[in-house]
């Protein structure tokens, strides 16, 4: 059975699957992850991007009603994403446990519990930060160990960027190293983005890359502030680096999605929505959920299928 | 089941939206405000500040709207205390020059400002002076307003010539006549509100007290206000009710004024009745730093160990 509830195209690589008691748990967890990803996407576009861009419109306070409608829609998306995220993390704990990923299940559960405790005033922010770092690193290591070395880089670099992005210096050398790691993680998606990508995928990815380049060059300030707010990236690297990186990310998501590999595509989207560094337990939760999806995925699809699949064949090592 | 989950999530979301209750917690750094038995007063050198944990907040240039600028002050060190339902904040930063006179048009003052959302909510308003549906309250301290003696115009421009004013009340002083708070009796700290770029103005009443001093090339400024909200445009504070706070610093000798300033993002402000040792921040920093190094080491090792051998589906199940 396809637990994601989506039928793969006829030319997609075969997904070895198994049906057991864990499938129902995994199916619910992955469905919640997809729902949370979509709600978070609405929140990212409407709240984190649209309202923060609209503040530059002169006299925006004179059209406050329109602004408020967009902001409230974004907030609804935010609340929906938070609720689905919490449910998704809880379901993921059960699914990971049933699939034999005990440490991963414990990590996800610890993050969820700590976030709730922090909300209740029972745990400080520093404790939440520490638990999130441990969980991100632990999950990333677990995912990376199932992948061939050349396919590990995106996951490892994302985790490195997350840890460095949470450092004390937002604009210092540590933050710059995190920035390089984050862009490196995106660029390292090139193999999965380019191999077997169809014309539409390439066109969309190219359009995203060109748009990113133009926006960053045309306005050197606001887009970088949005990058910082949305993803924890300072925008200190050349615009071309971000253009290429975002192009590869979009191409990889499309390539995976169109090939029927919906789970890693959803995981990638969740990691992009989460960004790097410490923003809030919401964004940290998105990162944890994305890595948890990647933890579940290789069990069904084969350890090397995540990023190195060959079109029309079994996964390669 | 999925439909029920989705409907339930939607209902919960609408309820949370209605009550503006945010289930998530900010991780952007926390400024912890502790209770003290004796009022620290407005003296930045008061011994009470030694017991308050220090939070270092990063600043960067204001790069969002015209006039861009600032970025010359990398960070501020902030402490918070509360006593008898009054919030005290001390902001400290390095500045090699004292710019506390603005008698000439080319002179600008050193200054610092703290900013709060007008009402703590599920999402913070834009840190850049708020937004249409989310105002901000700003407390700005300026060194020139604190300086005791105003500069004499003849000292500033010894070769200048000034026509006699017709000293007939406020006829030739329109700002004063209009009760402009800056022209009448500018306080060292001004209480202001804004709902976006270009909308900042004085609050309906001036309720902030503050004082600054210099010590070894650093400004230290204390600002204070009672917990209750003066009006809907300004926040109330209370123990156990976190809100957000951001900072801005102006270095006058670098030409900083108005929007040319070094700014931070919002960090979390939590008021607590607890008392913590002053070394808490140092120990915490060492602990988190060590954990970060270990995390990077683990990721480095994971990059190079042999991959787990591919096996049949379900092999990973213990």
Q: How would you characterize this protein structure?
A:
The complex is a heterodimer of chains A (317) and B (318). Chain A has 317 residues and is mostly helical. Helices cover 74% and strands 0% of the residues of chain A. In chain A, helix 8 packs antiparallel against helix 10 (239-258). The radius of gyration of chain A is 19 Å and the shape is globular. The two termini of chain A are 24 Å apart. Residues 1-21 and 299-317 of chain A have low confidence and may be disordered. Chain B is an alpha+beta fold and 318 residues long. Chain B has six helices and 14 strands. In chain B, strands 1, 2, 3, 4, 5, 6, 7, 8, 9, 10, 11, 12, 13 and 14 form a 14-stranded mixed sheet that branches. Chain B starts with a helix and ends in a 14-residue tail after the last helix. The interface between A and B is large, with 92 and 68 residues.
